[in-house]
Structures are given as C-alpha cells and as structure tokens.
Amino acid sequence: MEVAEKILITGGLLLLLFAFFTGFLMGRVREHAFQAPKYLILSHMEPLMQGTLMLALVWAVRMSTLDGRLEGLAASLMVAAASIQGSKELLNHYQGLEDEFAHRPHPIGFYAARIQSPMASVGLIIFIIGVLRAL
Ligand code: HEM
Questions:
Q1: Helices 68-94 and 38-63, packing angle to 10 deg
Q2: Residues 16-72: pLDDT tens digits?
Q3: What pLDDT is recorded for position 118?
Q4: CA 86, CA 54: separation in Å to the nearest integer?
Q5: Which residues constitute the domain of residue 105?
Q6: Given the CA of residue 21, which atom of ligand 1 is nearest to it?
Q7: Chain centroid to CA 51: how far?
Q8: Mean pLDDT value across the chain
Q9: Looking at residue 41, what is its pLDDT?
C-alpha cells in the first residue's frame, strides 16, 4: 500500500472520530437547547464529509500515475486542510461566534479558513492531474 493511501485512510478515520466526538458534544447541548449552535453543527458535518472524502480519494491514488512522494504531499495537504477546517469550526463555537466573516477583529477561524482552502485546492489539483494522466 502506498504512503498516500495510508495518510488518507488514517486521516479519514481520525476525521470521522472527530465528527463523532462533536456529535456527542451536540447531543449534550441539545438536551437544554432548541437547536445546536451553527459552528458546532459545522464541526460535526464538515469532518463527516471530509473524512468520507479522504477515504474516497484512496481510489484517486490507486489510479494516479504520479510519483508516490507527490501523491503523499497531496494526501498530507488534504488531510491537514480538513483537520484545520474541523478544528477551527469547534474553536469558533467555543469563542461564541455567530459569523466568522462579520466578526471584527477577524477571529482565528477566519484566517484558518484562508490557509486551509489553498492547501486543499493544491492537494485536489495534484490528484486530478494524476488521474487525468492515467486515462
Ligand atoms: C456517519 C455518522 C453520522 C452522520 C452521517 C451524521 C449526520 C448528521 C446530520 C446530517 C445532522 C443534521 C445537522 C443539522 O442540524 O443540520 C446531524 C446532527 C446531529 N448529530 Fe450526527 N451524524 C453522524 C454521527 C453522529 C454521532 C455518532 C452522534 C453522537 C455521538 C451524532 C449526534 C448528532 C446530534 C446530537 C445532532 C444534532 C441533532 C439536532 O440538533 O436535532 N451524530 N448529524
């Protein structure tokens, strides 16, 4: 098994564990509240989607004909970006934010989103190039 596959599988499962943990936190909040706060919901939903996405990308690695180190870089970028995204949603929640865009001064979550987005995009583009080259 390639290093990139191991990174995606381990990262994906840890993201799902994170999502289950925030689901547990949301269950506790919902015992006393009409609805869960926005950023707590996001810290549940995003790692659920991203964790599943990491597991699905294993197929892209299998098809890709790029150098294994480049695929490892792409996998690391995508797992790191997803981890930053889930963590910053939970941080936003604990900071009591309602809108990371509108809040002044901009909170850490706002800048974290600006960092993780290009990381994930570069990782995805590497996988797309690898897959297109293999067609
Ligand atoms: C594959 C597993 C899971 C999926 C696909 C899933 C999906 C979802 C979705 C779609 C929502 C609705 C979010 C919204 O309010 O718009 C949600 C909310 C929620 N989830 Fe999960 N979830 C999963 C696992 C878990 C686990 C393991 C827990 C508890 C440990 C959990 C606890 C909750 C709670 C408490 C809510 C809020 C419900 C509410 O506000 O009415 N979830 N989940």
A1: 170
A2: 999 999 999 999 999 999 999 999 999 999 999 999 999 999 999 999 999 999 999
A3: 98
A4: 14
A5: 3-133
A6: 30
A7: 7
A8: 98
A9: 98
Which of 44, 52, 89, 93, when mutated, tests ligand 1's pocket best, judged by the most ligand atoms within 8 Å of its CB? Answer: 44
Domain count, the chain: 1
Which ligand 1 atom sits nearest the alpha carbon of residue 20? Answer: 27
Span from the CA of 3 to the centroid of ligand 1 (angstroms) = 31
Q: Whose CA is nearest to atom 35 of ligand 1?
A: 27
DSSP letters spanning 84-125: HHHHHHHHHHHTT-S-TTT-SSPPHHHHHHHHHHHHHHHHHH
Distance from residue 22's CA to the centre of ligand 1 (Å) = 9
